[in-house]
Automatic annotation (TrEMBL):
Any one biological process term the GO annotation gives: glutathione metabolic process
The protein's Enzyme Commission number: 2.5.1.18
Cellular compartments annotated: Cytoplasm
Family annotation (PROSITE patterns): GST_CTER, GST_NTER
Domain spans labelled GST C-terminal: 89-224
Chief subcellular location: cytoplasm
SUPFAM superfamilies, sorted: GST C-terminal domain-like (SSF47616), Thioredoxin-like (SSF52833)
Record-annotated GST N-terminal domain positions: 2-83
Keyword Membrane recorded: no
Swiss-Prot/TrEMBL keywords: Cytoplasm, Transferase
Species annotation: Sipha flava
Protein encoded by which gene: GSTT1
Annotated TM spans: none
UniProt name for this protein: glutathione transferase
């Protein structure tokens, strides 16, 4: 009987990350879909498990973890997964931790804020985006993408070394999010293009399954823009 439960919504980047990781590593789990756009994460049942009322989170036989990076580390330490995901070697592990700490205020912050301001809020409110705000956020996001292209992926196939790790999956799911708002982060960035192709190949067919929501929401946003014009 499966004891580990994943509460998730594919619209959430960390939700996709955890779903893909557990699928790829064959960690048995029960997926429980929580519809964020219908505010299902705010109900009393979710609050009784997660005081922050956010997804993703896991419930492993009564042990609840509410932060996605902590969940990834827990899964790597608790379940029988290949060492390259989060190596026991302290120096290799530190490189992965370095990216995970950096990305929270960089890749994640900039891609998320751009998506929220340009697409999500207009879809929720029916009001057009603040173009000055969007331009500022886009410039910050571009600076961050260039750091990924020219520093993190300058001379290696994956973000933290020669083998894929949890850092690559975290990064990939974050970079898919701006596509909803019509921005492709991979254009004219050859290192990012080759890297995302490697990540997709490793996680296929689960990667395509988890990211269908990107195409669907992007189309919804396009229709919204057409109506505005």
């Amino acid at each position: 009987m499966v004891k580990l439960k994943l509460y998730y919504d594919f619209l959430s980047q960390p939700s996709r990350t955890l779903y893909l990781f557990m699928k790829k590593t064959e960690i048995p789990f029960e997926p429980i879909k929580i519809n964020l756009r219908k505010s299902e994460h705010l109900n009393k049942e979710i609050e009784s498990l997660n005081i922050f009322k956010k997804v993703p989170f896991i419930d492993d036989k009564g042990f609840v973890i509410m932060e996605s990076v902590a969940i990834l580390r827990y899964l790597c330490r608790t379940y029988n997964v290949a060492d390259h995901w989060y190596p026991k070697d302290y120096q290799k592990q530190a490189r992965i931790d370095e990216y995970l700490e950096w990305q929270h205020n960089n890749t994640r912050a900039h891609c998320t804020e751009y998506f929220r301001n340009k697409a999500l809020q207009p879809l929720k409110t029916g009001q057009p985006a603040n173009e000055q705000r969007v331009e500022l956020l886009e410039n910050k996001m571009i600076e961050n993408l260039n750091l990924l292209e020219n520093i993190w992926l300058k001379d290696k196939p994956f973000l933290c070394g020669e083998e894929i790790s949890i850092s690559d999956l975290v990064g990939a799911c974050e970079l898919e999010q701006p596509k909803i708002a019509g921005f492709d982060p991979f254009v004219n960035r050859p290192n990012l293009i080759k890297w995302i192709a490697r990540v997709k190949t490793i996680f296929s067919p689960f990667y395509e399954e988890a990211h269908k929501v990107i195409e669907q929401t992007a189309e919804e946003y396009k229709q919204f823009i057409r109506k505005q014009n």
